[in-house]
DNA sequence: CAATTTTTGAGGTACGCAACACAAAATCTG
DNA sequence: CAGATTTTGTGTTGCGTACCTCAAAAATTG
């Protein structure tokens, strides 16, 4: 049977509310926009009418009337790897979407790995921005720069990499320790009791996200998989040539190497070394970020799993959060939570 | 250095375009809304001005001026399991959001497992709806009902369960065969070479999504994991009591049972039986849908992995697709693709 | 060149709300 | 009860676009 919760066919306007409450439009306006000078009794009457008619402000009309426009700056790394390239493109697409909603995004490219350069860029941002999204570094100067922006009334969200001790209003990105733990569980279960060593390759241990991932990874590996022992973390600087050599050396030195967890970039180097060694099939390799390269390695079977964060979601979420913050609307945490995606060969998008 | 792609501080309006092109507002309107009666030469001039100024219609203003409102019907199952309850809630939340964008959602509860009832419900839907989202059944009568709606100019999207041979404009849901393959790969890898049998429990094989999942599961299991042999599929009718008994019987009969893949509901019964048998730790159990129950089983270690589809995403996506379709806007396939989530204990949201 | 058709311009209204000014009414104060 | 104060009503304008009418201008035709 089709028993539906049928709603009124047409939306109630402010005028309808005014009529229903027996007050004027101005009073309703005062109530819904929480302005002063209305008796509590009247407020109650208006709110009752709002509830009764199910009045909801027409966001389109409200934004039009307010006539506000928003300018946001996205501070992203220069050059860089496939993930960052993709993120930049997703931000550009988001900008395109925002343009239809009275919002503008400027993309600023900065060397985000240098705290001074990054902090300087944040300090010199035009005061025209109501919001800033930045791939942060958890460094005192950067933190100070963020805090100053926030103090100036600018909404700041950190993107992909957080600065938790700063006063940013929101972090858009994954829980990195949890991502590391996820990788460790996959590694442990895929190796199912076999004994041997596992290597961890990070970009740089001065990057908070890489550190957190390897922390989570070690945590689970050591507590749950006694059969596996982790080798000291190697820093590959997110560079393929360097990771190629490091991986080749690893494979040569450790005959009992069972797994590689790469919590940064430089995957092409790892793939080359693994495939050259002839041990690609037996060594379980888990890495981060779905790119055209890692996709290929996964399909080919060299790579066993990808832990991913969806750059498109991150870009859109950052824009939504900034927009909501600037226009005083609430955000739904559910929708803005960035998930830790696991990709196997079978569930690739 | 902060070299940014700085955009104009304020958006260009139709008037700006008119001025730049040296024509009147009416002409610009004719061009941007593709009305007739404008010389090709003039069209080109206006379009050049649009491009030069980077004009983008203000969606808020456009929608306001058009004054259209949209009514959508969501046809969901009556009563039912945790997943459907959650989906219903997410649809309600989406309705709340849509209300701010001149859209209304009515939720109709129907026994979607009965093709005649479902088809009847679709046939009797009020003609006031511009769009319908339905958890479909791939059955001739249902297909015909969908086709008729589409023929009447109603946008129809299938939700969670598809009717691919119908003329629905979009399917919002996961790739079920791929989900089954994903489960099989996890099963195969978690069992890592051990020999034995694997059971598959479906709700009903007349449900397309369940069939597709078990198809994908068997496909990978038989081709890649010769060490594991699948038992005949069991139909648990998504009922916990029934699955409890069936699982208990399975465990009693098959000492070499290594894994259980449940591609439907009834998980509480499986958990009970597994835990009662004392073999919860050694048997790899993989199931679908993250609910409060499956979350608990996963954390406890009884359950090894959850294949999930995000009900919130699905609800929002369906609404966005319907809205876009009705207002002639394009959709971005990227954003509307529903992912096959894998949840381990470590990456639970 | 006149008559006809096509193209363009000018101008208006409406959408629902925000924001403001000012007057009128109600309430409170001394 | 007069005066001061608070609360409410009336009215206006503008946001950027859609859509409409009617007239003016330009191009095309016979």
UniProtKB/TrEMBL annotation, chains A, B:
Keywords: DNA-binding, Transcription, Transcription regulation. Signal peptide: none annotated. The keyword DNA-binding applies. GO terms for molecular function: DNA binding. It comes from the Bacteria. Gene3D superfamilies: 3.40.50.2300, lambda repressor-like DNA-binding domains. SUPFAM superfamilies: lambda repressor-like DNA-binding domains, Periplasmic binding protein-like I. Residues 12-66 form the HTH lacI-type domain. Pfam families: LacI (PF00356), Peripla_BP_4 (PF13407). InterPro entries: HTH_LacI (IPR000843), Lambda_DNA-bd_dom_sf (IPR010982), Peripla_BP_I (IPR028082), SBP_2_dom (IPR025997). CDD domains: HTH_LacI, PBP1_sugar_binding. PANTHER family: LACI-RELATED TRANSCRIPTIONAL REPRESSOR, TRANSCRIPTIONAL REGULATORY PROTEIN. This is LacI family DNA-binding transcriptional regulator. It comes from Bradyrhizobium agreste.
């Amino acid at each position: 049977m089709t028993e539906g919760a049928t709603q009124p066919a047409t939306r109630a306007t402010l005028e309808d509310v005014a009529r229903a409450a027996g007050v004027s439009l101005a009073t309703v306006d005062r109530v819904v926009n929480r302005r002063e000078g209305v008796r509590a009794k009247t407020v109650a009457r208006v709110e009752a009418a709002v509830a009764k008619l199910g009045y909801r402000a027409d966001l389109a009309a409200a934004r039009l009337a307010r006539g506000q426009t928003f300018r946001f700056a996205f501070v992203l790394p220069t050059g860089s790897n496939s993930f960052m390239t993709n993120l930049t493109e997703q931000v550009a697409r988001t900008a395109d979407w925002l343009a239809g909603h009275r919002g503008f995004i400027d993309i600023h490219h900065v060397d985000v790995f240098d705290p001074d350069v990054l902090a300087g860029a944040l300090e010199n941002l035009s005061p025209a921005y109501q919001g800033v999204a930045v791939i942060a570094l958890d460094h005192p100067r950067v933190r100070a720069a963020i805090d100053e922006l926030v103090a100036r009334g600018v909404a700041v969200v950190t993107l992909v990499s957080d600065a938790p001790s700063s006063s940013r209003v929101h972090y858009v990105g994954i829980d990195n320790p949890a991502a590391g733990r996820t990788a460790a569980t996959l590694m442990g279960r895929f190796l199912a009791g076999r004994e041997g060593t596992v290597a961890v390759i990070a970009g740089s241990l001065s990057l908070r996200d890489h550190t957190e991932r390897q922390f989570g990874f070690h945590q689970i590996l050591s507590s749950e998989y006694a059969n596996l022992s982790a080798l000291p973390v190697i820093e590959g600087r997110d560079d393929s040539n360097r990771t190629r050599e490091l991986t080749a050396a690893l494979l040569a030195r450790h005959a009992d190497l069972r797994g590689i967890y790469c919590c940064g970039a430089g995957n092409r180097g790892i793939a080359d070394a693994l495939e050259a060694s002839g041990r690609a099939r037996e060594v379980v390799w888990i890495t981060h970020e779905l790119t055209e390269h890692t996709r290929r390695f996964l399909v080919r079977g060299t790579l066993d799993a990808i832990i991913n964060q969806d750059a498109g979601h991150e870009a859109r979420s950052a824009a939504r959060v900034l927009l909501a913050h600037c226009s005083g609307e609430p955000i739904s945490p559910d929708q803005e939570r960035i998930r830790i995606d696991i990709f196997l060969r079978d569930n690739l998008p």
